[in-house]
Amino acid sequence: MFRTGLAVLALGLSSLAAFAAGVPASEDILRITLDQALVAKLPASTATVIIGNPAIADVTTLKNNGGMVVTGKGYGQTNLIALDINGNLLDEKQIHVEPTKHVLVVQRGGSRESYSCDPVCMPSAVLGDDSKVFSEISGQVTAHDAFAGKGTAAK
Predict the structure, then answer these.
(1) Which domains does the chain have, with CATH numbers?
(2) DSSP-based three-state secondary structure for 14
């Protein structure tokens, strides 16, 4: 009986180890909120950075310090690959772009609209919203930015 228990325990532990080997370590996953940016490190000799799906994330390398800024562009997962000048793999990370945490979604039949609530709810353009609602909110943001850019500059 004791030997059977040990065999079952050993089998369970080996299965757990095999499962864990296929799961990326937490430092290999960059978790980013949609429309937010994250500063992360790159290996010192990185010459090329590749994003698997640029519709999900974008990267800008920082000069002279081995860093990068990763921006969440769309929901989902993709990967980032860092290569040296000879094309050798230096690093690979998973990128997970997640929705913002403080969003209220109103579903009216087939129409969806989102509100950013932190703590007061205001309309916001979020991927997946009804195209009419998304266009109206985006247009207001663009008009606001243009208006704000026309302020009096210091001379």
Answers:
(1) 23-98 (2.60.40.1080), 103-147 (no CATH)
(2) helix
Please give the DSSP secondary-structure letter assigned to residue 104: E
* pTM listed for this prediction: 0.65
Beta pairing class for 121-124 and 76-83: unpaired
In angstroms, the CA 15 to CA 10 distance is 9
What are the CA-CA distances from residue 65 to residues 24, 57, 60 (Å)? 26, 21, 12
Q: Taking the chain, what is the end-to-end CA distance rounded to the nearest angstrom?
A: 87
Distance CA 37, CA 72 (A): 7
C-alpha pair distances (Å), 55 with each of 51, 73, 96 = 9, 6, 12
What tens digit of pLDDT does each residue of 113-144 get? Answer: 999 888 899 888 888 899 998 899 888 888 88
Q: Note the pLDDT tens digit of each residue in 7-35.
A: 433 444 444 444 444 555 556 899 999 88
Buried b (16+ CB within 10 A) or exposed e, 32-67: bebbeeeebebeeebeebebeeeebbebeeeeeeee
